[in-house]
Write a structure and sequence with these properties.
heterodimer; A: alpha+beta; 4 domains; B: Rossmann fold
Chain lengths: 799, 218
């Protein structure tokens, strides 16, 4: 009986391959975008875990220099002698400038066990290890190191991307850091009674585990962003699936009635239908996961670039097939099908055997259901308003986005219905009256697809407004930050002094780039020493400032911090920030610092040199009225290699190219979501067209030609798409505001001004209209060519 | 006794409370007997057919079909009776649109586990459907579709065939042909036939006629 029942159910798909395609394609698209994003996230997290496992990032307390960026080896020895269980770490970069590898040196005897291959070497093959002193790296990094080292490279797939681990002595030699260390890892269990840190090493500070350096936590917001996009795409795909399943179940009402009349028990029929859907969900899921893999593989290099650009974290650029994500892809496909089909299955379970078998496919939802939908949407929009006024945190930001988008999508059909009713009242021509009335009747059948289009367009407007606002702000920011006409790198302290003397006359201003990595307000940060002059005073635009900001900074009475540090540390103008032992200065200004992953503080150059006398500037910005001439004299007279001089345009172009690459992922997801929505409209129109004859035949019989009916079908699609585009505009702008003013601040630490781009919106609207015309062309053509005999059958009741 | 209906009552909900459709109906049929149920629209003819076929449930009364009390069976039990003991022919044919003629004819027999390809072929030949076996319902005329429905009902070798206005959608000549074939085939199987019809001419061709008026038998 099961086989016979299944064969009857499957026969529907054989006879309606288009519906089968719609359902499987909808599921596949929904799953593809979701699982693609999940694959990217899984790969990135695996990279962070590898970094944490091999480098101890965030796992252990660490001792860092309070000033400068190096620890003397004798301090480490003093700590060990005093009973402190600490392990030394040396860190630096090697390789070509465009292909750098992070080299980390560890001591196998004092490094906490389980921390990468060196931690294990101490307990397993120490004699072999000491004999060879190899460098450990994954295959891709090992390839980059080829020819750079004279020690053997051991391939270890678990090592973080672009990172190589080796013995501390090897790293010190390769990095030129003789008897110097970068940081010390503190073992979790320490002997009782050891002297306090301040007594043995007063120049070191202790950063607790899980601090700001925990890359996984730092990048959570970025992955949450991607996940939100994946969910949005999934929701758009599920709209298609819901529409397809609803239509199929409606069309099979007659079959269900007949099957039951012929003796198929209801519960068995439900089980068969559920099994049928499960099989389709798995089929769609498998296709979706495969597509997702392709999407993820193509997006991953850009995601890796984005994460490195935004957070300074390394992510492997190659994708592995991880069971967790493809299983989750299949699961989400089954879950989505279940969600989309639950209502239809319950409807079948409750349908009396003798209920009308006539398909009421996508019957017009009137009365209570529509009122409930409108009330639900208004409630969601009200919640969104409350969250915007009172909520805090990234999760709240996404909650606000969810309420806003779902509320607006649910409100779309009632709004369109009111607009169409108004148009019907205003119409004087009988054809126009019929057109508006008929369009209203089609609305329930198209509402899911139109809601999908609304979401996709709003997401597009919102995200493109955010990215374009960011681009404008970033370009302005580059103009103020990259004011110097030339950027020069020197190679030694002696050359630096000679260089400063050489350019003192021809250059208007010389600006040394002095900085150290440090910890400010318990957060990893950079401290800069700035030569305050006309360039800073004239070019830097501050987000907030006290009076005489630059004068006070120049007089060493105040400092400036970037927005990230201010927001993360909860500081603002007027608050004090400690930058060295016992030295706290008030914040006189907050500067926008877009694209920088960590906090920054800027003090006057003399103060910086007092605090860090060992730090020498090897990079300079040079202001000049005649940059080309100065460049030539630096090369020919001073003898600086040409590659040590970069002009402003080159740096700006490079920065902008990094920016564009950063948002390639967003743009790709945007386009994919819009394509899915266009597909939803196409499939809805195509399936709806197969059921339109009973509605169109009377209009044909009363004098409208088939050609005219086909034209009106096209116009209908354009009108509905145009109205949806109109509704998408305010929604998209609201979305942009939430992204810029709420999500960005929580996720990245900076707030961007919002700009409007009317031409972009117009282009998008035109794209939507063209998509609607393309989607409606095939159904309209079919309608225009329907043989009169088929139309007559409607009246002969033979259909 | 194949069918025994006693004190059968059924009402449907109406705007002003339940509307009685059948009131205390008693009816009996022997195996192989043919019976016409006639009456005006709304008199309850189809309702009797639905209750006997287990498509609907009675408010009160008893329906003994082939020794089983249909009124005491649950949904699963009624489904089993429909599948194994009853053949139903509807006015609207109710074929499965996505199955071809051959699969439609065989469908109920397969459900009941009684599919016999030779018998199915014989039925198709007897009803003039051999050339249509690979076609789909939408490609058939009304008369042909009803022949398929009759073949489907007979292929399961039921104890009783319930036909609800089986020729209501057909022209007069076609209706005559279809009825001739149905009666001949039913006679050959030994099944009982209960047919709802408005037509006095068709009713006259049954062995017994029962007239319903406002939910009671005359």
């Amino acid at each position: 009986m099961m086989r016979t029942g299944l064969s009857a159910l499957w026969s529907h798909w054989r006879r309606n391959p288009l519906q089968l395609f719609t359902l499987v394609a909808g599921l596949a698209l929904a799953t593809a975008l979701w699982s693609g994003v999940q694959a990217v996230n899984a790969e990135a997290r695996a990279s962070y875990d590898a970094a944490a496992a091999t480098l101890g990032d965030g796992q252990y307390d660490q001792l860092l220099p309070e000033r400068g960026d190096l620890i003397a080896q004798k301090t480490f020895i003093a700590l060990r002698r005093a009973g402190w269980l600490v392990g030394p770490v040396v860190e630096g970069r090697i390789g070509a400038p465009d292909n750098r590898v992070r080299l980390v040196g560890l001591d196998p005897l004092t490094t906490p066990s389980g921390l990468g291959p060196l931690g294990d070497a101490a307990t397993t093959g120490l004699p072999d290890y000491l004999e060879q002193l190899p460098v450990y790296a994954n295959a891709a990094t090992a390839a980059k190191l080829e020819g750079l080292l004279n020690t053997p490279v051991v391939i270890d797939a678990d090592i973080a991307p672009d990172t190589a681990i080796t013995d501390i002595s090897v790293a010190q030699r390769l990095l030129g850091m003789d008897v110097q260390l970068s940081r010390l890892i503190v073992a979790p269990v320490q002997p009782i009674g050891r002297p306090p840190l301040a007594e043995i090493a007063p120049d070191l500070i202790r950063r607790p585990a899980q601090g700001g350096g925990d890359v996984g936590r730092l990048t959570d917001s970025f992955h949450l962003n991607l996940t939100a996009f994946g969910l949005l795409s999934f929701a758009v795909g599920i709209f298609i699936v819901h529409g397809a399943i609803g239509l199929v179940f409606e069309q099979r009402r007659g079959m269900v009635r007949t099957l039951r009349a012929l003796g198929m028990p209801l519960n068995r029929l439900i089980v068969l239908m559920a099994a049928e859907l499960l099989a389709l969900a798995l089929l769609g899921g498998v296709v979706g996961v495969l597509l997702g893999y392709l999407i993820a593989a193509s997006l991953l290099p850009d995601v890796a670039a984005t994460i490195e650009g935004l957070y300074g974290a390394q992510v492997s650029g190659t994708l592995q097939l991880r069971p967790a994500w493809w299983l989750s892809g299949l699961a989400i496909s089954v879950l989505g099908t279940g969600l989309a089909a639950a209502g239809a299955l319950v409807g079948i379970a409750r349908m009396p055997l003798l209920a009308s078998a006539k398909p009421r496919a996508w019957a017009t939802a009137r009365g209570t259901a529509r009122r409930l939908q409108a009330m639900g949407s208004l409630a969601l929009l009200a919640v969104a308003g409350l969250l915007a006024l009172a909520g805090e945190g990234l999760i709240m930001g996404f909650g606000l986005l969810g309420c806003l988008l779902i509320g607006a999508a649910l409100l779309l059909p009632p709004v369109l219905d009111r607009v169409l009713a108004g148009a019907q009242r205003l119409a004087t021509n009988v054809t126009a009256q019929w057109f508006w009335a008929d369009t209203r009747q089609q609305l329930p059948g198209l509402s899911l697809a139109l809601m999908a289009l609304l979401l996709a367009m709003a997401a597009n407007i919102g995200v493109s407004t955010m990215v374009s606002s960011f681009r404008l702000t970033f370009t302005g920011f580059l103009d103020q930050r990259l004011a110097s006409e030339l950027y020069v790198t020197t190679e030694s302290a002696a050359q630096t002094a000679a260089f400063e003397a050489f350019v003192a006359d021809p250059a208007r201003e010389t600006l040394p780039l002095l900085s150290v990595d440090t910890t400010l307000a318990d957060l990893p940060a950079e401290l800069y020493g700035a030569r305050i002059g006309a360039t800073y005073r004239e070019n830097w635009v501050l987000l907030a400032q006290a009076p005489d900001v630059w004068t006070r900074v120049a007089e060493q009475q105040a400092l400036i911090v970037n927005e990230q540090l201010a927001r993360r540390a909860g500081l603002w103008v007027g608050d004090d920030l400690t930058i060295g032992t016992g030295l706290a200065l008030p914040i006189a200004g907050i500067v926008g610092d877009y694209g920088n992953p960590i906090g920054q503080a800027i003090v006057a150059e003399p103060l910086f040199r007092d605090l860090y006398p060992e730090v020498e500037a090897l990079s300079f910005g040079v202001r000049s009225e005649t940059p080309q001439a100065l460049r030539e004299s630096l090369i020919e007279e001073f003898g600086l290699p040409a590659q040590n001089i970069t002009d402003q345009a080159q740096i700006k172009a490079f920065s902008l190219s990094v920016f564009e690459r950063t948002f390639t992922v967003t743009a790709a997801l945007n386009v994919l979501t819009l394509a899915v929505a266009a597909f939803a409209i196409f499939m809805s129109l195509l399936t709806l067209a197969t059921m339109r004859l009973p509605q169109l035949a009377p209009a044909w019989a009363l004098g409208l030609t088939r050609r005219r009916l086909g034209q009106l079908e096209l116009v209908r699609a354009v009108v509905l798409a145009a109205l949806t585009a109109l509704c998408a505009l305010p929604l998209g702008l609201a979305l942009a505001w939430v992204l810029l003013a709420v999500v960005n601040v929580e996720a990245f630490g900076w707030r961007l001004p919002m700009f409007l781009f009317p031409l972009d919106y117009l282009t998008l609207a035109l794209f939507a209209l063209v998509a609607a015309v393309i989607a409606a062309t095939l159904p309209a053509r079919r309608l225009a060519r329907t043989p009169p005999s088929d139309l007559l059958k409607v009246f002969a009741n033979e259909r | 006794m194949l069918l025994s209906v006693k004190a059968l009552a059924k009402s449907y909900p109406g705007a002003d409370g339940p509307v009685p459709v059948l009131r205390h109906v008693d009816l009996a049929m022997q195996a192989g007997e043919t019976l016409a149920l006639t009456g005006e629209s709304g008199s309850g003819k189809s309702t009797i057919l639905h209750l006997v076929g287990g498509l609907d449930t009675a408010d009160s009364g008893e329906i003994l079909l082939d020794g089983h009390d249909m009124t005491r069976l649950d949904d699963k039990g009624r489904a089993a009776m429909r599948r194994d003991a009853v053949g139903i022919v509807f006015q609207q044919f109710n074929l499965i649109p996505s199955l071809d003629v051959a699969a439609n004819i065989a469908f109920q027999a397969r459900l009941a586990g009684r599919y016999d390809p030779h018998a199915t072929q014989d039925l198709a030949e007897a009803l003039g459907l051999t050339a249509q076996m690979a076609k789909y319902p939408e490609q058939l005329s009304g008369g042909q579709q009803q022949r398929v429905a009759i073949a489907r009902a007979l292929a399961v070798r039921p104890r009783i065939i319930l036909a609800d206005e089986p020729t209501g959608n057909l022209d007069e000549t076609t209706a005559e042909d279809v009825l001739d074939q149905m009666l001949a085939l039913v006679a050959g199987t030994g099944a009982a036939l209960m047919m709802v019809t408005h037509s006095r001419g068709l009713a006259a061709r049954m062995e017994r006629q029962v007239h319903l008026r406002q939910g009671t038998l005359e």
